[in-house]
Amino acid sequence: MSTSDTAATSTPSSRSASASTGAGAGPSGRWGSLGPVGLVLAGGVSVQFGGALAVTLMPRAGALGVVALRLLVAAVVMLVVCRPRLRGHSRADWATVVVFGVTMAAMNGLFYQAVARIPLGPAVTLEVLGPLALSVLASRRAVNLVWAALALAGVFLLGGGGFGDLDPVGAAFALGAGVMWAAYIVFSARTGRRFPQADGLALAMAVGALLFVPLGLAESGPRLLDPVTLGLGAAVALLSSVLPYTLELLALRRLPASTFAVLMSLEPALAALSGFLVLGQTLSAAQAAAIALVVAASMGAVRTQVGRVKTAVPEA
User: Does residue 5 contact residue 194 with C-beta atoms inside 8 Å?
Assistant: First the structure.
């Protein structure tokens, strides 16, 4: 397993897997880690503020309409920039990229249905349980019982002992998005092995857009063609997809995959911050503690997985 593939299977981030399709993670060398770390954090801030902007757009376009606009604009930009080659791929290659695209579409659709019902911070916290579970299962070490217990404690606090403070439907959508996030990571790694650079990601985005544009039109119809809606949808796509993918691709060229994975574990905290600043969503002390527990569990699981890989692959 390559370093970039390790990042894809152990990192609790939808974008980390995407980034692994285009560049390998290497040591930061003479540049140090400040530059790449800044790029990763900027990407995280971008995607979470993009999510907050998407919530403000939902009254205009609906949750499905926002997903359609995000995937469509991002797909167009990625296809123009990457110009992926369409010939010379096997049926297995195309099957992998189609499943990747379907998974991407489902992950985004379920997540946006969640944030339409519950605050952004709790939604991302519940969603991150999917890749966290993937990381714990992949490691198969006893210490991961500690991380799983921390994550479960965080979920218990987040739901007030039974999700009494959160819309249960929204919470279910967020958990479903987490399942799709884990599947996304797996198929992103497979796509990265079959397609050069970010070609597979661009093609998968096109698949996701083709799936969701009809759904968005069915929900919102001509409202999607409103110039303001189109402009805001384009901003969501740039903030949530194009900009973070680009920043993280650059960061992974100079930043070890393990460091990248730990930084990505901060997603729930960044989501809570953007929800507060953009949407005025405040958290109770219990919800803030819940997010801290899940972030700690995610970081711990990532570090455990990285340690297992280093032990399994001794120095030559």
Answer: no
- Provide the pLDDT for residue 72: 92
Low-confidence ranges of the chain (pLDDT < 50): 1-34, 161-163, 309, 311-316
Q: What is the pLDDT of residue 1?
A: 34
Single-letter amino acid, residue 145: L
- List C-alpha distances in Å: 286 to 87, 121, 122, 231, 296: 53, 13, 11, 37, 15
List all residues 6 or more positions away from 299 whose beta carbon is below 8 Å from its beta carbon.
262, 265
The DSSP call for residue 222 is G
Token code pair at residue 255: 């930043």
Helices 129-139 + 3-10 axis angle, to 10: 120
Among candidates 180, 193, 188, which has minimal Cα distance to 204? 188
The residue with tokens 């593939």 is 5
Beta carbons of 126 and 171 less than 8 angstroms apart: yes
d(CA 176, CA 224): 26
pLDDT of residue 208: 93
Measuring CA to CA, how many Å separate 179 from each of 92, 98, 133? 23, 18, 9
Angle of CA points 71, 216, 19, to nearest 5°:
15
pLDDT at position 313? 44
Please say whether the beta carbons of 83 and 246 come within 8 A.
no
Establish how many alpha carbons lie within 13 A of residue 127's alpha carbon, considering only the half-sphere containing its beta carbon. Answer: 33
Position of tokens 């999510």?
51
Tens-place pLDDT, residues 90-112: 999 999 999 999 999 999 999 99
Backbone φ/ψ region at 159: left (φ over 0), alpha (ψ -120 to 50), beta: alpha
